Amino acid sequence: MLKTELPIPRAFRGLLSLASLPGARESEAITFALTWLAAARMVLTRQVPGATLDSLMTPAGWEAVAQAGLPLPLTQRWLLSTESTTSASLLLEGYQIVQTLVRELGAGAWDVLPTLTAAVMDPRDGGPGMVSAAVAELALEMLGAPAHRTLWIPFDQWGGLTIRALRRGWRVKVAPMMEHDDPVLPLMLAIELGQPQSDDVEEEIERDREGRPLTRADCVLACPPWGVPVRVTRLSQWGSDRTETVEQFARSETWVVNELLRRTTDTAVFLLSPGVLFTRGQEQLLRERLMHLGGEHNALHSVVTLPGGALSQTSLGSALVKVTPQRDNLGTLMVDLGLAKRAAVNLDELVGTHRLVALGCQIDPERACHVRREDILRNEVSLMPSRYLRASVSVGDNAVPLQDLCEALRAPTIAREDYAEEKLELGIPELGPWAPVAASGLSKVVRVRAPRGLPTLQPGDVVLSVKGTVGKSALVGEVEPDAVVVSQSCLGLRLRTNWQDRLTPEYLLMYLRSEAGQAQLEALQAGTTIQHVSPQTLLSSFFVPIPDAETRLLVEADYRHLCKLEAEIERLRQQMTRIGQSRWPR
């Protein structure tokens, strides 16, 4: 799994190979390896009375380790309860591995975090719940210096965040909001400190008379599970507002953020799925609450979007969100470190390079900007940095939102019933030419439900792609009435009658394809794996400059010229094809 030959990775890999027991999960193998390292550290630091390293070759020695406070995971307990040559052989091999490690490193500090992080982050056979090293350190830096404050880390399956926080001088509360089979934190503490407990780590959960947890802290660092229904977990027992139903925040990310902000007084940093930044429904409700958390103050300090690789077992991008519930911020720092990047990037190097930008200590106009609270509220409470970084498009004082100019023609519902109607579909493959797209150029037929008032295309409509490949457009040419519909990835736009004396479809198409129009569309895009612009966002946030009569005529003349050039290019292409194929026929 790990190819480096440094002492700790080599020992860790060797112990992992010993744990390849029938039916054992990879996470159990990792816990098994950590248990050996933790036991060896406790023996070296004299935390196990009467034990030596040789004691780890016997069940009695491990019993002494357990009595000294180290919890033994299920795999280790199974090994010690089995009296067989296989069990004895595994104990001997494990002892030999840690003996070699002790001979190389002695009783000095053992840093297992890089090795553990690499093992759990491995996309082939790692495990859930691990945050990459650079992102974890950035999140802790966003909290600021400890300054005698308490930090609650409610989701830390592998103990890595707690160890990093302790190294920075924090007093950490580790009351878990979700339980795990084999707690790893005592093992990590034993490796780090030589003992499975620390005076700077508070594990006790204070409860009221009904058993409801009362844990609070100055600061919170939370990496909640993504997309988990709250009803199937124990999260709901932490609810501090009995009048608020789970239906308002039914998914884990939104529920956890909403609840933890009630339990912190200073600063909270969350590692969230990017959908929380732009999705409608409960995510938008959460964002609206964030905007009003401080009354008329701005409690949202910063948002940093990241490409995939921040969290194990997912290739999706992520976002770090910092909130200061009781402090006003002049503006929200929006930082985009490449959420939508598809190419492979080294996330740790990326975060390391732009760390100061993410912390607001360095200016980088291409990646970061400060946004006022009123601007966020005006933009559908979107917290996508890309929306604001690319929003500096000059549209002029006479620009009008698209919703005032056009009626939206949405895609119909696809149907399979016998009574469904067949329609021609105009979609992304047909977008691109300057000349209007006629029905004769369409081939795809779809079956749709045809309620009264089904939106169909007519000559003069403009079709725009809003999902997948965003920003392609075309003008609708000759089509039969009620015969053509837009595809699921597109939106039709029809000029309202009260604007038809000042604008034309040709002018609208030219602006949509212009640099300014494309820049606006790029700024409105959202999505993690598939980029899209919601129809509501497009209609309310895309602005079209209204021309005077002379400018409109010039733009329309440019459009006709482009159509002539396109036709001439097609004529020349066909002529070149004929010439190239005129000799030596088959």
Automatic annotation (TrEMBL):
Signal peptide segment: none
Gene Ontology biological process terms, A to Z: DNA restriction-modification system
Keywords recorded for this protein, A-Z: DNA-binding, Restriction system
Gene Ontology molecular-function annotations: DNA binding
Name used for this protein in its record: DNA methylase adenine-specific domain-containing protein
Organism: Malikia spinosa
Lineage start: Bacteria, Pseudomonadati, Pseudomonadota, Betaproteobacteria, Burkholderiales
